[in-house]
Amino acid sequence: MNDRIELLQGTLGMLVLRALQWGPQHGYAISQAIRTQSSEVLQVETGSLYPALHRMEKQGWVRAEWKQTDSNQRAKFYSLTAAGKDQLIEEHARWKRMVTAIGQIMEPAQ
User: Fold this and answer.
1) CB neighbour list of residue 61: distance below 8 Å, 6 or more residues apart
2) Would you kindly state where each structural domain of the chain is located, as residue ranges?
3) What percent of the chain is predicted at pLDDT more than 70?
4) 95, 103 in Cβ contact below 8 A?
5) Residue 109 pLDDT
6) Among 63, 99, 97, residue whose Cα is nearest residue 81
7) Which of 25, 44, 69, 93 could form a disulfide with 29 if both were Cys (CB 3.0 to 4.6 A apart)?
């Protein structure tokens, strides 16, 4: 689909943390949640998702636990930690500042 948009560097982590606010999920469910919530515009590739999840796990923002999926397959489920919730608040505030700054450049006041 040509209408898909590549994620800006630094936004993947924020989107993953946001998806995990909805509850523990395995990697495929996280990527599907981002795709669905973005009206099919944002596509997260596994080659980007899993390194990001591992990095966030090392930083203490998410924790991982092996569980069975609904289809009875073993998968690693990720959940948001308290530090992850704090990080999401910080990243969301930074994202809002960036959107405002870009808007001022792209649509300057007359």
Assistant:
1) 13, 17, 80, 81, 83, 84, 87
2) 11-106
3) 91
4) no
5) 82
6) 63
7) 25
